[in-house]
Amino acid sequence: MSYLFSIEELTQACEGRAENIHASHINSISIDSRTVLEGGLYVAIKGDRFDGHDFVHKAIVQGAAVALISEKRARELAGLPLIIVADPLVGMAQIARVARARSRAKIVAITGSAGKTTTKNMVENILAKAGETHASIKSYNNHWGVPLMLANMPQSAEFGVFEIGMNHADEITPLVDMVRPHIALVSNVGPAHIGNFDGLEGIARAKAEIFSGLEPGGLAIINNDHGQVEILKKAARLAGAEIVTYGFSKSADVGIFDYFPHENGGTAQARFGTVGVNFEINVPGQHMIENATGALCVAHHMGVGFDVAVAALSSFSASAGRGAEHILGPKDNPIVLIDESYNANPASMTAALQVFAVRDKGMGRKILILGDMLELGEGAAGFHRDLQEVVVATDVDKLFLIGKEMDALKSALPDRINVVAHGENLAAINDTILNSLDYGDKIMVKGSLGVGLARIVAQIVDRFGQQVKAKTNSE
User: Fold this and answer.
1) Chain centroid to CA 70: how far?
2) CA 265, 289, 261 angle in degrees (round to 5)?
3) Distance CA 189, CA 205 (A)
4) Which of 164, 192, 271, 305 is the most exposed place for a label (fewest CB within 10 A)?
5) Whole domain around residue 112: which residue ranges?
6) Model confidence over 240-278: pLDDT tens digits?
7) What is the pTM of this model?
8) At what angle do helices 286-301 and 116-128 cross, to 10 degrees?
């Protein structure tokens, strides 16, 4: 593995003090002592629940070449290979800025209320076919995830793909100022975290912060299929950006036509002026077609040929918790488990339920395990209640509800919907769920991360035997 930074470069970048370091360079940067690579830098970040300084010894034993630590903890960690700074998180951000400054890569940053991780993964898949590509992993998109991903970008990378998230206003601005993308894409605007904002307009303004960090002559790519497009376009114009919109809307610059869904995905055509680009994805849902079209827009403006992009999209598969599809048990009568446990907001919940609605139940049953959508503020009950129509449309045979907010949905459902159990938390009905499942069932699990539905997904996979195959589809 080639090195990422020399020790001298690291020390200068974060304005730190080096002690007891025998290595000449590092090959990676991590904030997790469990996954730090041999020869890497371990950054001791103090979080809400854990202080990374408590795991410095473990990181060094794991093979870390050096640890970036706070001056306040330097005395007790003396004797270990250290770079000492006032604040390790600030130090990592300084290293990230150096990584960006030395890079010649073409950079794209992606945000959105839903679809940003999927779009990021699609863009990464495409660009990786065209050159060395560095991209954010998982959903590392916050105040520590973005600098961590940027700091890990090799100098040799030809493309960089970064996801930027937010829960409040003014969170994207400092992150995009660090990333300085050539292209910024907004996948959509919806009522995610709306409890922290003054309505959808406030969310749109916060998402529009991503354009403030564009490089001169940069490009804003905007999904046109939502009601806050003009807010985004105004912000992009103020940033001096070129603007390209995409979507099913007739006014989109890159329109989507001839969409034909099927159970496992769909086909469509994206029109770039007079050029029609036919593509197929093996991920179900109209929203996934939109995500793919956004990725095509990025690829086109990065100079990647449509043939390369279309081929990459055809082989796209998703990540755990974001529509990952597990097929468990006997091949002739398996359980089909759709894992949407990573996150949920009204837009993504509705989209997932619409996809589940067109699933053929075959000889089995359709089962929904739904958890609360969090951070929706005073309107939470209404947002949950509004799910009743799309839940009914799924033709569900058994429905399990988890969380206090699901009271509103339960009360709105007609009597013919079989709500088997409703628990304040997963533990309250965990065993009831597991004992209600059988081979042949089609099951979807969807809820906000804080509800913890990933646990029931893992238990279903464990209980129902050998996993025959797994397909993945990101949100």
Assistant:
1) 30
2) 40
3) 10
4) 305
5) 103-314
6) 999 999 999 999 999 999 999 887 789 999 999 999 999
7) 0.84
8) 40
